[in-house]
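Q: What would this chain look like folded?
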Amino acid sequence: MALIEVRDLTLPNRIAGVSLTVFPGEMLGVIGPNGAGKSSLLQSLAGLLPAKGDIRFAGIPLHDLTSVDRARQIGFLPQFCDSAWALAIEEVVALGRLPWHDRDETAIRKAMQETGIEAMAKKQINRLSGGEQARTWLARVLAGTPRLILADEPVASLDLYYQGKIMHTLRQHASGEHSVILAIHDLALAARYCDRFCLLKQGRIHTFGSPETVLTEAALSDAFGVPIHADLTHSPPIILPAWTPP
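A: My prediction, written as structure tokens:
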């Protein structure tokens, strides 16, 4: 059974007629140019935007899940996060356990280790760099042990080391009964970790399928509006604009 199934999802002026299926153990990369609808799609799948269409989680209509069940099963990492209080990192991560009404120290410590923030546990989040904060917010999601993680640009503010570490962590999460859907701009990095891709253009699915199907020069060039060189046979994959701006 699919973990999440979407049929004809529509949000006026953002996404239109999007249908896709993600199975347990899969990591799906949502890609496309700015304004293509990537963030809107993830927010709709999290139940945060009132989109029309049918969204089913493990066969159950998303709107039939209680807010508590949805928070336990689906972890959402927005593109931008902020803290209104000067909380210690470990307290921010512990917030991920709220839907479960417990403080599972094992889950909290594991999430901090996976994101490389355990040594900073006592630091206040408002005193961290942007990349350190991004890893803290992801750790909060991981601490909740959701079956599905929706992550909007989780590596955008990270250095090269942590880009790889976080993608590896998400890849490990996408196994067994768990899955990950993430929006990402670094296509070469995504090609190393994602099982399938959803390429959006102007709110609609341009191409959906395996890396070999979606990450082609023809599909990417048409969606992004610039010539793109793509070589998935190279290790690691190479995907770069093949043009010089005027």
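The mean pLDDT is 95.
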